[in-house]
Amino acid sequence: MLEMKAARETVSSHISTETTHHFDVALHAAAKTSLESMAELRQAVFECVDCLRVAEVGPVQMILAMKACALDSSGRYRPEGDEYPASNVDMLLDQIVRWSIIKYYDSIA
Q1: Do the beta carbons of residue 83 and residue 32 sit within 8 Å?
Q2: Cβ 73 vs Cβ 84: under 8 Å
Q3: Domain residues for 102?
Q4: Domain count, the chain
Q5: CA pair distance 101, 105, nearest whole angstrom
Q6: Residue 24 within any structural domain of the chain
Q7: What number is the average pLDDT over the span 76-102?
Q8: Selection from 56, 69, 68, 71 nearest residue 104 by Cα
Q9: Residue 34 covered by a domain
Q10: 7 lies in some domain
């Protein structure tokens, strides 16, 4: 509790109201955009997993297929002006695998 109080005092002493407002706006915009894009990605992962389940692909092969799908995505789709390197996909692989496993086993029940 005391650490947060001291941290808040540091912010108010050293960062202007205008600067914190800019931070507030940027943070909330990023959170909103991230939530929307992550929900869209989750839905796309679920659709892929549904296709693999219908094809009776086993769980290990499904995970490997989803990893390959994600890693190969930059080669299949590269929008003009895309400023994000393909290596950024690596940051999402763990989440894609989690969603894939959840959907795969949810489909069985």
Answers
A1: no
A2: no
A3: 41-108
A4: 1
A5: 6
A6: no
A7: 77
A8: 56
A9: no
A10: no
Which of 13, 3, 12, 107 has the alpha carbon at shortest distance from 62? 107
Check: CB of residue 26 under 8 Å from CB of residue 35: no
Structure tokens at 102: 């959840």
The pair of structure tokens assigned to 2 is: 């005391």
The answer for 81, left when phi > 0, alpha when psi is -120 to 50, beta otherwise, is left
Q: Is the pTM of this model over 0.85?
A: no
**Residue 14 clears pLDDT 70, i.e. is over it:** yes
| Sole residue written with tokens 């507030």 | 24
Show the DSSP H helices in the chain as ranges.
2-14, 17-54, 59-76, 89-108
CA distance 36 to 104: 23
Long-range CB contacts for residues 16-22, cutoff 8 Å, separation at least 24: none
In a domain, 10, yes or no: no
